[in-house]
Amino acid sequence: MMEKEHLIDLKHISKEYDGVTVLDDISLYIRKKEFVTLLGPSGCGKTTTLRIIGGFETPTSGEVLFEGKDIVSLPPYKRRVNTVFQKYALFPHLNVYDNIAFGLKLKKMSKAEIQKRVDYMLDLVNLAGYGKRRVDALSGGQQQRVAIARSLVNEPEVLLLDEPLGALDLKLRKDMQLELKSMQQRLGITFLYVTHDQEEALTMSDTIVVMRDGHILQIGDPKHIYDEPANAFVADFIGESNILRGEMIHDELVSFAGREFPCVDFGFGEHVPVDVVIRPEDIMLVGEDVGQLVGTVQSVLFKGVHYEMMIDCGTFTFKVHSTTMEPQGSKVGLNVVPFNIHIMKPMKEAGK
Amino acid sequence: MKRVFKRIYLALILIFLYVPILVLIVQSFNAGKSRAKWEGFSFHWYQELVSNASIMNALWVTVSVAIIATIVATILGTLAAIGIYSMKKRPQAVMMTITNLPNTMPDIVTGVSLMLLYIFAKVERGYFTMVLAHITFDVPYVVLSVLPKLKQMNTHIYEAALDLGATPAYALTHVIIPECKQGIVTGALLAFTLSLDDFTISYFTTSPLVQNLSTLIYSATKLGISPVYYALSSLMFVVLLVLLLIVNHRTGDNKG
Fold first, then answer.
1. Quick check: A86 and B156 CB within 8 A?
2. CA-closest candidate to residue A181, choices A205, A210, A215, A199
3. Which of A114, A182, B38, B50 is buried most, with the most CB atoms less than 10 Å from its CB?
């Protein structure tokens, strides 16, 4: 990838608070018009990364390049990025119109021009006619839209969003995900999105950055991250997984749960410990006599599209998703095709 | 039965609280000088009050001191509250203790210690020292009414303003201060009322030549009090009542 195309480059960013390391040597880049998501559990450093780009935190070391220029010492009000804050941070003493116009007034724009742009934004976020309302009289979803409009009206190069949908209910969240994504595509603005919701990340992003404990574990497009998780943590965090300790016998043969399985991975060496990851939907239920493994159904949960069954195979209890249900207590066979067995280096090494 | 008892109890409380003031107000309209005899309704003592130069002068001192002290204390207190708000936890706790201490201290302690300070610093006591003293005891009240407003604020509001292109100064004047405006006004009203009716601290921090109403009334009582002071006290009661109602109305609004 050419350096020129990078809009933002983080180079070896570290951040410490009172001796506690929050970010440890993070490097990543964001291209123009890309939708990048920082994904990870709380405390992984994703919000800190966003705040460093917004200018609200100064990294302890490292460079933040914006179109190739270091902006670490640039205050937030001189950066060409805008932030949609967690819980919106709207100005309660201003009405919807004045909230959105706040940034434009600072740019000394003419009244007519401000009016035109604010009205356009109100239209864009489906809040036409709401200009005179008090912001605290709006619903959560409407406040969310005002917050987005307030940022977008300034035509930022990059829009930073810090868990913007976290406070909304499930249905509204799904709608807003689609709306945000289509808005991003129509306006051609770069989005940097922070969330702990893996489904949200998979739905919306061009690129996902998985973080944990101040480290980046994996960067890739959603499909790549789901199909080829870099380690057991990523596998577990993105979707559901069965994670087992195993041993790589030699290339394309792995042993776990008390027997050997053919697989497609190679290059780990011979007789080395590995983590084995199998997605619950990749386990096929077959007759007791033809299964690679045999187990007893411990519990069955109806999940809507599928059933979730916990199947005890003696050494390990597998989580299995299937559209057909096996009754509790019955004996079943489990099969996994080689392609669906994911072999990873054990976690401690993979952390780096 | 319980209800009736409750009502009687409440009535008794109100009677004990307000009957003396009522008597005072009635007496202020008494034409005669005697407290024992009603000699007809009159504004005589109010006319007397207005034409009494020393009382009018004291009134001027009281009001001007209160206004100056309120303005200065409101500015200092608001800035202090913003400063304390943005401190880290430990120093914040220390600052809050320092702020609360003068409020819990008896006025006499504040008054005497200020007097000693002025003597020690060889500052001649008078109007200026009284203003300084009033600012001193007003500031904590402003801090205490502004700080909760700041704490109610969404923590990212200031950052949001910067994010949208506001300089820190613009964010302070256009976002932070409007956000805690209610607290600032409440604090100012509180400071003003406290300043108006302060006696103890004023007594120790001024000279006999510069007297405000409370110190003047105090010295007047030594000679036997004239009904002029009933009129004066009635007026003060009404003014303070109005201010108090405004303050209460505002705090009531804040909850809603």
1. yes
2. A205
3. A114
Residue B19 lies in a domain: no
pLDDT value, residue A19: 86
Interfacial B residues in 73-112 facing A (CB < 8 Å):
none
- Which percentage of chain A shows pLDDT scores above 90? 66
Domain count, chain A: 2
- Whether A67 and A176 share a structural domain: yes
Do B156 and A85 lie within an 8 Å CB cutoff?
A: yes
Q: Is residue B24 part of a domain?
A: no
My answer on whether A12 and A112 are in the same domain is yes
User: In this structure, how many other beta carbons lie within 10 angstroms of the beta carbon of residue A91?
Assistant: 21
> How far is the alpha carbon of B176 from chain A, nearest alpha carbon, in Å?
9
Please give the Cα distance from A151 to B160 (Å, whole number): 9
Q: B181 — contact with chain A (CB < 8 Å)?
A: yes
CATH number at residue A67: 3.40.50.300
Q: Are residues A208 and A343 in the same domain?
A: no
Domain with A269, as residue range(s), is 241-350
- Residue partners of A124: CB distance under 8 A and separation at least 6: A149, A152, A183
The pTM (predicted TM-score) of the whole model is 0.78
Q: What is the DSSP letter of A102?
A: H
Tokens describing residue A126:
């489906």
Position B21 in a domain: no
Which tops the pLDDT comparison, A10 or B36?
A: A10
Q: Are A69 and A6 in contact (CB under 8 A)?
A: no
SS3 assignment, position A28 = strand
CA A254 to each of CA A248, A264, A291, A336, B41: distance values in angstroms, whole numbers, following the listed order? 4, 10, 17, 12, 109
Sign of CA dihedral A286, A288, A291, A293: positive
Q: Which string of b and e fits A217-232 if b means at least 16 CB within 10 Å?
A: bbbbebeebbeebbbb
Whether residue A293 has pLDDT greater than 80: yes
Coil, strand, or helix at residue A189? Answer: coil
Whats the size of chain A, residue-wise? 352
Nearest chain B CA: its distance from A82 CA (Å): 6
Q: Look at residues A181, A209, A232 and tell me which one is the last residue of a structural domain.
A: A232
CATH code at position B222: 1.10.3720.10
Tell me, yes or no, whether A224 and A271 share the same domain: no
> B77-91 b/e with 16+ CB inside 10 Å = b?
bbebbbebbeeeeee
Predicted pLDDT at B150? 92
Quote the distance between the C-alpha of residue A59 and its chain's center: 22
Asked if the Cβ–Cβ distance from B179 to A76 is below 8 Å, we say no
A45 touches A16 (CB < 8 A) = no
Residue A328: DSSP 8-state: T
Residue A195: what residue type? T
Which of A232, A266, A294 is the C-terminal boundary of a domain? Answer: A232
Determine, yes or no, domain membership for B7: no
CB contact under 8 A, A88 and B157: no
